């Protein structure tokens, strides 16, 4: 697993940008640099694959976005969004490629179809049923809290 290494290979994040022809928001890259301790805490606690919840497997990120979600898109479903992780059960988490939107959106696969706006063909990102976190740090802290509660 990645956390056995000394640090995150930022060149792999650059590879994601090249392969998907995108510019990841600086807050996303900075999070991996500045919050590595929090990421390690989560990964050790979860003891799951490197793509779960918040990916540390950037090859997975490329393949899952490009091949499964057909992202990035400039229109339609998940317009201007990129998947940063999944729970392995169809609930995927996204960030906006707009560097001014720091939120993380977690879409519950059981209600995903109900969250699609028929006119735009995209999710209703502001819907109260959408799992929304104000930052990557808040998102990961909530996931850690959930894991701890699940184990108790």
From TrEMBL:
Name of the featured protein: SMI1/KNR4 family protein
Segments forming domain Knr4/Smi1-like: 9-107
One family name in Pfam for this protein: SMI1_KNR4
Organism: Aquimarina algiphila
InterPro entries (UniProt xref): Knr4/Smi1-like_dom, Knr4/Smi1-like_sf
Superkingdom: Bacteria
């Amino acid at each position: 697993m990645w956390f056995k290494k000394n640090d995150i290979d930022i060149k792999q994040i650059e590879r994601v940008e090249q392969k998907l022809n995108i510019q990841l928001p600086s807050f996303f890259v900075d999070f991996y640099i500045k919050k590595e301790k929090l990421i390690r805490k989560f990964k050790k606690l979860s003891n799951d694959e490197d793509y779960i919840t918040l990916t540390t497997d950037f090859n997975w990120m490329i393949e899952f976005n490009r091949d499964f979600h057909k992202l990035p898109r400039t229109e339609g479903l998940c317009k201007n969004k990129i998947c940063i992780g999944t729970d392995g059960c169809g609930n995927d988490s996204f960030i906006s490629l707009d560097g001014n939107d720091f939120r993380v959106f977690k879409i519950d696969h059981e209600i995903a179809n109900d969250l699609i706006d028929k006119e735009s063909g995209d999710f209703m990102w502001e819907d109260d049923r959408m799992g929304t976190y104000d930052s990557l740090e808040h998102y990961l802290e909530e996931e850690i809290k959930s894991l701890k509660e699940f184990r108790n």
